[in-house]
């Protein structure tokens, strides 16, 4: 039996939010996976996490586009302009990674720059390991890999418990509270708009439960494999981390950098977990300048 699906409606969503970028889609398991794709230069692939969508990258994209770079920003299935399966059990780490891997292959990416945040990290870094020719540079911010041995913050544990008991997840409010500077009301609403019904929020509700809390849990072995691969990976890597992130504090970023054999992250001052909202233009400039340095 086919899963029940809430269609992504990109025309409606982009018009309502003003996020009117060049957009295309691929089909994955009969579902539409929507993505922004603008420009003709070297590609920068920006992957969001929980519970956002490509709208998160709008401030980052502009400085990159000004430098003549091609910007690609997918919406994970269950988010943004992509279709949303209403069954929690449909969503798995393997499925998200397979969908993004399929998009990377369809786009025939070579030597692109991968930029990941939040759940975009476990998904995108796994794809970077599995599709090594697609990405020659990595930009990592406020994320991690889940092996079942990682320590989760009290703030994250509280978030997980809240999501588990809340069917109609207040997506915009969660993003607002994780920013250092509260975004305007219209921005908060832009994060609510992809979800016209509580059932459409299944993808957002599923993510916390996908984090393995023991090495035997589903996804732990895959996360450990990616971690080991990154330790031996020589691709140039830029790590940026918000100084005011309560979900993944700066010390977590330092520990993650050490775990994968990278230099400590550069601090993004005055930014919370959704540092793209607090300091998006700065992030775009820093990535642009790093790429220009070669």
Overview of this structure, please?
This protein is α/β, with parallel strands linked by helices and 294 residues long. It has a single domain, classed as Alpha/Beta hydrolase fold, catalytic domain (Rossmann fold). It has helices at residues 10-17, 58-66, 93-107, 120-130, 154-164, 171-178, 185-192, 202-210, 220-231, 250-259, 275-292, and strands spanning 5-6, 23-28, 31-38, 43-47, 70-74, 84-85, 112-117, 135-141, 237-242, 266-268. The strands form 2 sheets. It has an 8-stranded mixed sheet with strand order 2-3-5-4-7-8-9-10, sandwiched between helices. A two-stranded antiparallel ribbon has the order 1-6. Strand 9, helix 10 and strand 10 (266-268) form a beta-alpha-beta unit. Helix 2 (58-66) packs parallel to helix 11 (275-292) and helix 3 (93-107) crosses helix 4 (120-130). The termini are far apart.
- The termini sit apart by 50 Å
Specify the biggest β-sheet.
8 strands, mixed
State the CATH superfamily name: Alpha/Beta hydrolase fold, catalytic domain
What's the number of structural domains? 1
Helix proportion of residues, in percent? 40-55%
Give start-end ranges of low-pLDDT stretches: none
Main sheet: which strands, in order across?
Answer: 2-3-5-4-7-8-9-10
Q: Quaternary status of these chains?
A: single chain
Q: Which radius of gyration do the C-alpha atoms yield? A: 17 Å
Task: Find the CATH topology.
Answer: Rossmann fold
The CATH architecture can be given as 3-Layer(aba) Sandwich
Which features would summarize this protein structure in a list?
single chain, 294 residues, alpha/beta, Rossmann fold, eight-stranded mixed sheet, two-stranded antiparallel ribbon, 10 strands, globular
């Amino acid at each position: 039996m086919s899963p029940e699906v809430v269609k992504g409606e990109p025309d409606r969503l982009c018009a309502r939010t003003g996020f009117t970028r060049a957009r295309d889609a691929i089909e994955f398991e009969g579902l539409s996976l929507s993505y922004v794709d603008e420009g003709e230069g070297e590609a920068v692939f920006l992957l969001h996490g929980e519970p956002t969508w490509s709208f998160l990258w709008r401030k980052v994209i502009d400085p990159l586009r000004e430098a003549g770079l091609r910007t690609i920003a997918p919406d994970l299935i269950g988010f943004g302009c992509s279709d949303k399966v209403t069954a929690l059990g449909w969503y798995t780490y393997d499925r998200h990674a397979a969908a993004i891997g399929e998009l990377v292959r369809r786009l025939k990416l070579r030597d692109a720059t991968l930029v990941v945040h939040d759940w975009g990290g476990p998904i995108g870094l796994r794809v970077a390991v599995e599709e090594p020719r697609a990405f020659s540079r990595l930009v990592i911010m406020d994320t991690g890999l889940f092996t079942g041995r990682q320590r989760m913050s009290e703030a994250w544990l509280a978030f997980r418990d809240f999501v588990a008991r809340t069917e109609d997840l207040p997506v915009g409010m969660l993003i607002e509270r994780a920013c250092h500077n509260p975004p305007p009301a219209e921005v908060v609403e832009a994060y609510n708009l992809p979800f016209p019904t509580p059932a459409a929020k299944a993808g957002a509700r599923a993510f916390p439960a996908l984090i393995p809390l023991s090495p035997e849990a589903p996804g732990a072995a895959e996360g450990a494999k990616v971690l080991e691969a990154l330790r031996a990976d020589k691709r140039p890597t830029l790590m940026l981390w918000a100084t005011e992130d309560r979900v993944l504090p700066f010390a977590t970023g330092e520990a993650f950098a050490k775990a994968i054999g990278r230099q400590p992250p550069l601090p993004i001052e005055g930014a919370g977990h959704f540092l793209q909202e607090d300091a998006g233009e700065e992030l775009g400039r820093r990535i642009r300048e790093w790429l220009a340095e070669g």
